Amino acid sequence: MIKKNKLVYVGMSADILHEGHINILKTAKNYGDVIVGLLTDEAIATYKNIPTLNYNQRVTVLRNIKFVKKIVPQSTLDYRPNLQKIRPDYVVHGDDWKFGVQKKIRSQVVNILRKWKGKLIEPKYTKNISSSSIKSRLINQLTPTSRVSILKRLLENKKIVRIIESHSPLSGLIIENIKYTRKNSSKEFDGMWSSSLTDSCMKGKPDNQSLDFSSRFSGLGDLMDVTTKPVIFDADNGGRLEHIPFTVRTLERLGVSAIMIEDKVGLKKNSLFKDQSNAKQDTIKDFCKKIDLIKKTRTSKDFLIGARIESFILGKGLQDGLKRAKAYSEAGADLILIHSKEKTAKEIFSFSKIFKKTKYYKPLVSVPSTYSTTTESMLIKNGFKIVIYANQMLRASYPAMENVAITILKNQRSFELEKKISSVKEVINLIK
Length: 432
Prior knowledge:
- An eight-stranded parallel beta barrel has the order 6-9-10-11-14-15-16-17, surrounded by seven helices.
- With 432 residues, it is of the alpha/beta class.
- Helices cover 41% and strands 17% of the residues.
- The longest helix has 20 residues, at 392-411.
- It folds into three domains: 7-133, 3-Layer(aba) Sandwich (Rossmann fold); 143-395, Alpha-Beta Barrel (TIM Barrel); 396-431, no CATH class.
């Protein structure tokens, strides 16, 4: 029997609706009029991957379920702001939140309901089904077109997007699966950086430009085959104008989310910021032509254009960097990467302080390879939306492999590795 004039609050993500959701809503309806507190994309992004369906799409689905009376946005994981406004008679949630990361949230709900003698109803959790398990089975159906758009959605819904370099399919699988959990929160990488530097290093080539794009596309395809996270492609200076349309079409076809081109021209050596004496900066006019050509070639605005400014690297200073950022933004750049090789972030923060207040502002990108003590919270405070850890994975792998080889030569026998992967079994499990 449905209770009249009673309000029932149900908080949910409702990304991929399944029988567990329906059971909760059906139970809630027995206690009164059901108000769904639908978690926004931003709220979901604070603790796991952004939802497959955006907020408006999820609202549309829920509006067509007969058990739901009203839908309101829940902009945080914390139920209390909505509960304080609505003061429902009941809150309904599956009993699975008694343990794990949601235990604290449950306790908060119980305490606030006491203020107006509200009750918490906890139906038994529907076993062997969840949105996450369904998504994991569907993930192989991810199309290049749907993959391209993920980075743009991340930018819209996260305070900062965390990208790390991947130089092989195996490193991509590590990035895909690794998480760091502490207390009630977890962190993971949001996407991958396809670096021209690390790609050429993996091929044993002396400089970035001795490895052509065709060779890089082959390796990139292998990476995309076994991962699902968005990829930003480091295209150096983009190459010749007549080659850019081919590059852009290939990247979109593979499912890459963004291309990053730099306004430096000339031979680049793989020396991690050394021996760049032959490099010079492109003219603003010519570089804007490249941006405009990419904009005209791309088939979707979800494929983002990144412009990397080298004014600080080449000693031209703040004003030159700002002038170029304005021009590149007007030409159609979606992202601005301001580059620096200083030991602190002082000069890039001097740039962001001014640029983020202008009408030309576009999401800022940081590559903190040298100013490594700069934290992500500092970058957020100064207007940066993407942080790229551009070569750490390859740098870490080389000394580890070298140490193994030397140890085998020294001891003339095999040995047990001290780290987690002590046999190929864990590698095989990762690939599975």
